[in-house]
Structure prediction request, 209 residues.
Amino acid sequence: MQSNVNAKMNGNVRRGLRLSDILVTILISLVLGVVYHFWGSVYGLFKPLFFQADEMMYGMWFAASTLAFLLIRKPGVALIAELAAAHVEVLFGSGWGLSMLLYGFIQGLGAELVFAAFRYRNYTAWAAALAGAASAVGSMFVDIYMAYTDSYVLWMYLAKYSMRIASGAIIAGLLMFALAKALERTGVASLLRPASAKDYAALDDSRDV
Prediction:
């Protein structure tokens, strides 16, 4: 009976993204894409406080990648989720236009690389925070490529991107980790993930009874 469990486990580990995984990822991205679109209003409230204070809220724009991965736990999900959410923003008529797709790709890639570094087996708050911070770093490189910060001096760079990286770690990382845990408690998350060895063992035990 144990061999059956091992066989199912191995098959499960090798299995890549299923159509259902992609559809759920897109659904998550659709919801967060709408949030992204309206988040600009929240973001703008912080702008008058001090130089680049709005960067403290920037991390929400990285949330799709971390939340989708924490829920589905499959390779490629973080990248797909962030890129899909960027498409939703574009469809809503984002003022950033098609450049949003470049941001979505690079931000999603940043989170994806972090989860890949852990071989897609680390679902902790620490890993999520690193992924959120990596998305922020990715967005920084796009800003530089798009020449949005050409007039900045060193202290401006440090102030702007230190707040953005911290925001990515806290909002996209820790906050999305807490949300994923809350969804786990409702049982929703278990419906989105492949069965584990524990699940197969329980199934085999029930058949033996």
